[in-house]
Hints:
Elements: H1 9-18, H2 23-41, E1 44-47, H3 49-69, E2 83-84, H4 111-118, E3 125-127, H5 161-168, E4 174-179, H6 185-191, E5 194-197, E6 217-222, H7 225-235, H8 255-258, E7 267-271, H9 283-298, E8 302-306, H10 312-327, H11 341-351, H12 355-376, E9 385-389, H13 407-417, H14 422-427, E10 431-438, E11 444-451, H15 456-469
Parallel strand pairs: 2-3, 7-8, 7-9
Antiparallel strand pairs: 1-3, 4-6, 5-6, 5-10, 9-11, 10-11
Helix pairs in contact: 2-3, 5-6, 10-11, 10-12, 11-13
Amino acid sequence: MAELHDLTALEQAQGIRSGELSPVELTDHYLARIERLDDTLGAFLTRTPEIARKQAAEAESEAAAARREGRELPPLHGVPVPVKDLVQVAGVRCTMGSRALAEHVPTVDDHVVGKLRAGGTILLGKTNTPEFGLPCYTENGLAPPARTPWDLERSAGGSSGGAAAAVAGGLAPVAHASDGGGSIRIPASACGLFGIKPSRGRVSGGPLLHDVTGLATSGPLARTVADAATLLDVLAGTMPGDPYAAPSLPPGDTFASHALRDPGRLRIACLTEAPVPGVEVHPDCRTATADTAALLTGLGHDVEELSLPADDGIRYAFTRVWSVVAAHRPLPPEAEELLMPLTRYLRGRGAAVSGPDFTRSIYAFRMLAQSLADGLMPPDGGYDVILSPTVAAPPAPVGGLRNDADPQAEFSAIGAFTPFTALYNATGQPAVSVPLQWNAEGLPIGVMLAGRYGDEATLIALSAQLEQARPWAARKPSMW
């Protein structure tokens, strides 16, 4: 017999609109699952049951009024959506995964939280993240590690590992996440989910911690393409003060509608070799990519092998900018000793980066984006989509990438695990991780699709076509 968490987010929203499902009942269901399973999964840093129940009661009243008055409701009205703990919610602890901020309670919402409130969603809590979102695993000094429900000895990835563990473990139907170097797509791969890193400027990062580097953005994690596209509709939109703005959809158009459209015949480049020198791609990841390429060919697309020159220049530029991002997090001097070794290492490196070197690194990102736009994916020809592995190996064991004794070696290991994802943070292009493959051990192996800047719509339509050809949402971990 199906339970409430078996329903997709859109099915839940439809039940709420019709009156067949109560937001209060739905919220209580998820809160009970969090109470029972979260200590195992490590999905949440802060739970907010009082806020959730209050919002659910308000959503139920609003849904009843809308039915009486014949009004439309937002597409995810009454649906629980947890928020990653790098984003600030007024009155709720925001630790950013750091012991140095364990008692920090902001007084204002970030813009994405305002959009979730306006959309009538329910805050179950703040999801687990590594310190300041810096590594690609989710381990910190505040909570248990985030684990993939497909193998509890393995990491859920990062930095949105808590969000991914929550959705993959049935503790939330969808989740807010963020991505500065792969932090949506890496945990999507590790947890068998669909995740969208939107185009630069699609979702506002303000008002408090604008990312002027252009690397980071918020986006959705979900079990289905349609759920993720709908959450992207809720999150999207620029706000005053944003340093970037992605091209808008045509008036009246939605990302969710593209999950119902045929993508047409696309020219797709297949990239299997890492664009980073010396990185080996695991056979499972190669197999998943090759199998996806064959599936795309069978669906009528033109798929061609592609190799990009391995270039250390972009890796060095990313390291410099990532270190500066770590260094600019405001902390009192006495809090430095509370930080994780990797964070202290990156902050030290970032403090030593000169203004001209930082500028040159940002310029390298822009030139890379221009070269891809002009030479590989021009609007009047070239490739429409680039296919690659999401990461270079299956989900890592908990603690497998962390090296407190040698943070420099740890950062190198992180780079070798994630050689594909940061490329699109540097260029600002949209990219998704699609959960089409599981290996012989039963571990999910994601594949990544990247599109032209501003063209999330094509990626959503293509991903929905793949989902229809090889459905994945019914495949669930044993703890489900």
